[in-house]
Amino acid sequence: MRYKIIITELGEERKIIPREWVAGAADVTEKRPSGMGYAPEVETLVEVERKVLEQNVSDLDLIAVIKAVNNIETEISLGQKLTGRN
Hints:
There is one protein chain. By secondary structure, the protein is mostly beta strands. The protein has one domain (3-83). It has 1 helix and 6 strands; from the N terminus they run βββββαβ. It has one helix spanning 62-69; strands spanning 3-17, 21-22, 37-38, 42-57, 59-60, 82-83. The longest helix has 8 residues, at 62-69. The protein is rod-shaped and about 75 Å long.
């Protein structure tokens, strides 16, 4: 059996949404009956995801992974090492 380990960074970034040609962005005039015009640039917060690590392994010591992720230094004995040979 094989395992895939994926670590993804989650966060927020400020992003400027560029101007777009849209209806209703300008005053309705004879030349622009639909009010077409450029909307202003808008600064907003967007959620971002970045893949930091992706690794395939054939053996996985799940207890060691849990301890590492949670910064635990004590001994935990919840089971056995997960391998494709079990």
